[in-house]
């Protein structure tokens, strides 16, 4: 994976020094809070309900063992011994003191970690397909291009005071694993008929109070022009995005009001006028970055391992783990291991310092020193030899992270909600915990099959509720927590926004309502049909009837 | 004390301001350089220029620099206004003035202009500043030299890291 060189390291040092000076100016009263706020945000520091929250960037969701261990150390030393992995593949530390921030940033910088542009109205940390480099389907390793974009977007002088925050994701394969269509810019890697590498470019997706799926504005952008084309999009947005109303300032509103065609035309016009050669990174630099993502030294191994087969036959939990959490790898004899941070009853996405240490150990010992963060708020060991799978499983089991529920009912996305967040209207975590606990039984969960429940504590939709097979949105009704339920959404290649089923449901009734929905699915489904497909086939009526019959 | 800071050969220094900012409702002074709004420039600029007066134009963020393309060679300076320091449109406007319209004259940041954004302004082509805080030339020099490198090309002449790397400057 990419390691910061002397230039990258000096950029981090200079940034830490800059922020230290800015904090000093603020403390000395040389800047108002209004003037300081965007600077603090662009260094990842939020003021939350109870304390400062620090959001640490994890570019393309990739962490070395040393970096993961350092995150554990930071959480243990300056926080409460755990962190929260987010749908943006970052990690949030929820109990930070402002005075500790410079020390934390310095400690992280030693291993190439930072909180640069994890908040504020700038280009945020860019995500990529979490199985990059491990997945046989991928067109190219998206991390090469995201790393080029990371550098281009870092401290960009023209695009650091945008109308609003800006999020970019690059998918690597026909199967989208980044939720690209709900991004400000989503891209999908493609190869033209002549073999040329490029991207499909989608712009103007987003959730929040006005959800949109991003339309494609260019079917094929030659890869070498990625940065000049991004510059053109950003410039059109920076100049013409609305600044008079914070709720209408995202690029999705600009794209929707102009229409995708007109927006695309403006981007193309701007792009034609740009000095592309000055902006696009030369081939030699792309090659340098690409070399840093070279495949690890995989061994030649048999595709089937007898010991693993024997253990699957002997141990039901291991067989379930293999079935739900382990995926095929592009190299025979290797697998991708998903590590669920969704043990029923736990907080989705939370990981303790001890767990981080242990996963780092496993990655170093069995996984070529790599871990990934998935936007589903789970972790991944992307390169595990099949013969090491029993040891990795045991290691995960020992720290409570072998829950075999990837993609099942209890694998719920939930934002921090009213337990932490200053914006939230309702809690999300306890709702997730209650649903996950109700459907924890493996036989029940396997019978239901793939079901993606996503919960947000407010309309800002950090929990992606619009694109959940079942989406749950917390609303406040005269001081009481109610939840609006939607059905049929997806952020992936079958992208669609969910349909709201009816009036919001009182907090204590939500899990019953979910059970009613699931029972309806079981009644209506055809063999092998997923929940979301049944819903899309039969429509809202039977689901709605079941929920409101039981609620009243 | 003058409140204008200019970059002279890249070095910031206090400067006398040869221009008077004339508001739309103000009477036009009989002599000397003036800075006018776009509207007033469109109404009265021709006459002033014909009389040999030095004329600068102040653009609000919503007034596209492309509208000045024809007049740029005759303008003494362009002022780009920041109604709020968080309004980032003028970074694009300054970039376009330098890179697309080939403007080499003074680009002045006016309005809610603060020290912590000044480095980005310089990178986008601003070379004159009326600060809205207590920033002086020393402070401006400090914030514009805080970073040893840059990752991307902009309207300044800084060499991006990807070029430094190719030159073999990396000791990593």
What does this structure look like?
The complex is a heterodimer of chains A (552) and B (172). With 552 residues, chain A is of the alpha+beta class. Chain A has helices spanning 6-27, 33-41, 65-78, 101-109, 142-153, 226-240, 251-258, 260-273, 276-279, 283-292, 306-314, 316-325, 353-366, 389-398, 429-438, 442-448, 510-524, 531-538, 541-551, and strands spanning 45-47, 52-56, 62-64, 82-85, 91-96, 127-128, 168-171, 185-191, 197-203, 216-222, 326-328, 334-339, 350-352, 370-374, 378-385, 413-414, 453-456, 470-477, 480-487, 499-500, 505-506. Chain A has four domains: 6-109, Sulfite Reductase Hemoprotein, domain 2 (Alpha-Beta Complex); 127-291, Sulfite Reductase Hemoprotein, domain 1 (2-Layer Sandwich), CATH 3.30.413; 306-398, Sulfite Reductase Hemoprotein, domain 2 (Alpha-Beta Complex), CATH 3.90.480.20; 413-551, 2-Layer Sandwich (Sulfite Reductase Hemoprotein, domain 1), CATH 3.30.413. In chain A, a hairpin with a 3-residue loop joins β14 (370-374) and β15 (378-385). In chain A, α3 runs antiparallel to α13 (353-366), α11 (306-314) packs across α12 (316-325) and α17 (510-524) runs antiparallel to α19 (541-551). The longest helix of chain A has 22 residues, at 6-27. Chain B is α/β, with parallel strands linked by helices and 172 residues long. Chain B has one domain: Aldolase class I (TIM Barrel, Alpha-Beta Barrel), CATH 3.20.20.70. Chain B has helices at residues 38-50, 89-99, 118-123, 137-144, 161-166, and strands at residues 4-8, 11-15, 19-21, 33-37, 55-59, 77-82, 106-111, 128-130. Chain B has an eight-stranded mixed beta sheet with strand order 2-1-8-7-6-5-4-3. The radius of gyration of chain B is 17 Å and the shape is globular. Chain A binds chain B through residues 5-11, 14-15, 17-18, 21-22, 30-31, 35, 38-39, 121, 151-152, 154-163, 227, 235, 238-239, 243, 273, 275, 278-279, 281-282, 284-285, 288, and chain B through 61, 64, 85-89, 91-93, 95, 99-100, 114, 116-117, 119-121, 123-124, 133-134, 146-154, 161-162, 164-166, 170-172.
